[in-house]
Amino acid sequence: MFRWCLLILCVSAQSPPSQQPVSANISSSTIQQQIYDVIVVGAGLTGLTAARNIQQSRPGLSVLVLEARGQVGGRVRYSTMQTRNGVEFLDTGAQFISPTDVELLALIQQLNVRTTQQLTCGNNTVFQQTRRRKRQLSLQQQWSTTLFSDLINTPELINNLTNTSISTMSQQMDAADSDSVNRLMQTFFDAPGEQVSQVQLALTCSSQNATAVEILRRFGHGQSLLAQGGMNEVVRRLADGLLIEYSQRVVSVNDAAYPAVVQTSAGRRFTARQVIVAVPIPTLENIDLVPTPEAPFQQLIQNYGPTGHAYYFTMSFQRATWRLNGRSGKVIYTSTSGPLVWLTTFDTTFASSCDNSTSASSSLWGIAHFSYDVPFETRKKLYIQAIMYSLRFADFSPLDCVDVNFATDDLAKGTIPTLRLNIPIDSLKYLNDFHTLYQNVHIATADISSNSLGTMNGAVHSGTAVSNYVLQMLSAADAQSNGVLRDTPVESTTPYIYSTSSHYPPSMFAAAAVVVPEQQNQTRIQNSPVMMAPNSQNSSAATTQFQYETSSQYPTTVETPTTTTMKHFSFGNLDNTTTADEPQAVLYDSPPQQAQPTLNYSTTFAYSTSSVMPPVVPIETTTLRHFSNGNLNETSTAQSPPAVQRDDPSILINQQQNGYAYTTSTHYPIQLSSNRNSGINSRATPSPEVVQQLQQVSENASNSTSLQLASSLTQLVQTLLTTLRLQ
C-alpha cells in the first residue's frame, strides 16, 4: 500500500498542479503506534534538507515529516497560476539565489534542477552610487570580513550595536549609502529600520561575507540566480520519496521523555528517538517545549522576529512586454496619498538571454506596503496601476495575479526575522546552526544559521548540520544496543564471574563515551546479571549468596558477600564447632547420598571424589594407621598393624613441630625422623615384586581416578607390610 502511495505522489508531481498536494495515505493508528527514528517538524527547506540527508545516509531509518500546511516549502511559497503555457506553479515567496550560496547550489545540482542568472534586459538606475563616507563603508567591510563566530562571541565588537537602531545609523551616512541600507531593510528583511538593532546588519554582513550593497546585488539586483521552474520545483523534488503527513500542526514537543513525544492540535501523538523542530524562531511561541528552554533562549524568541507587514505578489504575462520597451522590469514606486505607499518589482522570468525570453512564461515578482488593509481585488488593481504608471504602459494586463502576507500567517509570522533593540548579548550565542533543547530534540532553522543568516542557503546549512548531529546520536545509540557499549548476559555452567567487555580494549569504550552524552548513558545503559547454571542439579547455598555483573567497567551494586564464615569442605574450615549465627556446613556439592559408615579418623573429614559418579563401597582401612588417614600418632594395639610412615622405606620423613608428617609425592625424597620406631626392620628391602608393582601404580596414576589410585596404593601397602614382616 505504501509503495502505491509513493507512486501516486510521483505521478501527481509530474501531472498538471492542483490546488492542494496529495498527502500520503497512512493509517492514523499505524503512525501513532510506531516509534520513529526521526521526526521532523516542518517541511520547509531546513526540514526537508535534514530529512533527505538522514534518509540517504541511512536508508533503514524511519523518518517522518510533519507539516502544518497542505504543501511543502515553508517560506518558499508558491501557488498555481495561469501562464502562457497553461496552469503552472509560480513562486510567491523566496526565490533569489546568490552566486555565493554554495550549499544551496550543490543541493539544486543534486536534484537535477537547472539555474540561470537573473536577466537585466533594459535600463537599471537603482544603484548609481555617489561618493561614500569612508568611515561607514569601512565599518561594513569590517563586518563582512569578520568570522560570524568571532562576532557573536566578542562582546567588545557588538556591545555598542545592540542599543542603536539601523535608522539612526543610516542618518549618519550619505544619501547613497543610506538608500542601500534602507532598501536592504525593505526588500530583504521587510522591517522598518527604527525597530531593528544595528547588530542585525553586522551579523548579516558577517554571515554573507558582503556589504549591504553586495547583498542587494546578489538577491534580485543583477547578480542573483533563478532555478528553472522556480524554488517550488526544488522543494517538491526535495520532498519526493519522504514520508510526509500534511495538515499536522504540532503544539507540543516533550524532550523530557524517551522516546520524545510530539503532539498535534488534532490530539495525535507521535514518538521518536530524535526530533528536529525546523520552524521559524518566532513560531516557537506556538509550541509547548518540554523542558522549558533556558532564559537566554527564551529572550531570543521574544526579541527576534519580523516586524514588517508587506505583501508579496506575483504576476504572470503572455510575454515580457517591458523588455520590448527597453525596461528591466525593476520598478520602485512611492506615494504619500496611499493606500499603496511603496512598491518594488523584479523580473523573475527564467530565460538564458533577452532574445529568447519570450519563449518562457514571463512573470514579475514584487513587494508592496499599504497604509491600511484593503481587499485582494483592490490590491491587485493598485499593483497594476503602479506598474503601468512606472513603465509608462498604456495597456498592462497580466494573465494572473496572486499575493501573500507572511506577517499575518501564524505559521510564519513574517519573512526573515530581525533582532530588536537592546537584545541581550547572551542570547546571540544560540545563532549556531541549531540548538538542542535537552537531549533528543533539536531546533534548526535558517534564522539561527551561522552561514547565510536568514536565507535559503542558511536553511540548507542548518538542515545539514542538525541532520549530521542526529545521525551521530543514532549511531551511538545503536552501538549500545549492538553490544559495543552495553553488555549482554553470559550463561555458564561453572561458578565463575564472566566479564563480556574484557575482550575489547578500553579505548573503544572511551571513544564511545565522547559521543554519547552523560544523561543518555545513564538512561539507556543497564547492567545485566550473569545467568549461572547450577552445578549438576542444584546448589542453592552457593548461587543465592553472590551478585554477578556482566562487565567489570560498571561498579558493583551490592557489596561483595563475605563467605569465610560459611562451613564447607572446600574452604578447609569444616570442624565440629558451630555457632548459632553460622550457616549449616555444606559437606557435598551433590545431593545427599546414602550415609557413609563412621570412620575412625582424627577429624570428621569425608572425601567425595565426584558429585556425579555413583557412590562406591568404602575400603576397609580403619585399622590401618597411615599419614594420609591422619592417625599416625595413635598408639598401636595388638590387633592393628604397624603404622605406615612413608611410601618408600629407604627415605625418612621430616617431622614437623605439630607431629604431622607431610609428603607431596612419592617421586620426591622423603626423610623420616629418627624418633619414630614402629617395630619394622628398617634395613629390610622390598622385594622386586613390590618395586615393580609400585612402578606400575606410579605410571598409571595420571590416568586413574582418586578412588582407583587409593585402592591400588592400599593393596601395595598391604603387600609391602607382608613382605617386611616376612623379612
UniProtKB/TrEMBL annotation:
Pfam families: Amino_oxidase. It is an enzyme of class 1 (oxidoreductase). It is found in: Mitochondrion outer membrane. It is a single-pass type IV membrane protein. Its EC number is 1.4.3.4. Belongs to the flavin monoamine oxidase family. This is monoamine oxidase. The gene is Cre-amx-2.
